[in-house]
Amino acid sequence: MSKIGRKYIAIDQVNVEINGSEIHYKGSKAAGIHLLPDLLAAEKENNYLIIRPAMERSERGYSSLVKELWGLHRALLAAKLAGAAQYFTRHIEIVGLGFKVIAKGSVLEFTLGYSHKKTYELPQGVAIAITDKAGQKFTLSGSNNEQLGQVASEIQAFRKPEPYKGTGIIIKGKGPIRRKAGKAK
User: What share of the chain in percent tops pLDDT 70?
Assistant: First the structure.
């Protein structure tokens, strides 16, 4: 059996309707549809959503394809339902003298020590909140965790964390910057 697929998904804060292989969900932050493959079926019990294989288990168990899809779709659906109830966030810090970000609507303008300013347009569904006056700390939020991680990585690609001085764009919670020793005397 799939260890991830067996877990129940709590649906306390989200309205869920099952229509064949389509799962319609609506929460306070987002709404959408998740399409299950034909090998899987969904059902509601109390305040939980359960994903199960649509076929009976054979003597040798479920096929590897069923187990893979079972765990995958359970994880994807759990992330969508969590994002529909509450926004995901990424805290980002820009470290460096004169490095900053300015938000002009959905367009971000970065000053990162280059001869020119870098601009980035936020996709639909991602919001920014600058948390300090200098413009060096900001928070991205959205209901789609995958899209939010992609946006944070694209922003970090403008100026990767530098191992000697520790300057650059740092995504909090992604791990510490590996620092290197400078030149010895």
Answer: 99
152 vs 139: CA distance, rounded Å? 10
Per DSSP, 131 falls in state -
d(CA 10, CA 126): 25
Segment 47-86, tens digit of pLDDT: 999 999 988 877 787 888 888 899 999 999 999 999 999 9
pTM: 0.84
CA–CA gap between residue 11 and residue 17 (Å, rounded): 11
Q: At what angle do helices 145-156 and 64-85 cross, to 10 degrees?
A: 80
Strand extents, DSSP E, 124-182? 126-130, 137-142, 168-171
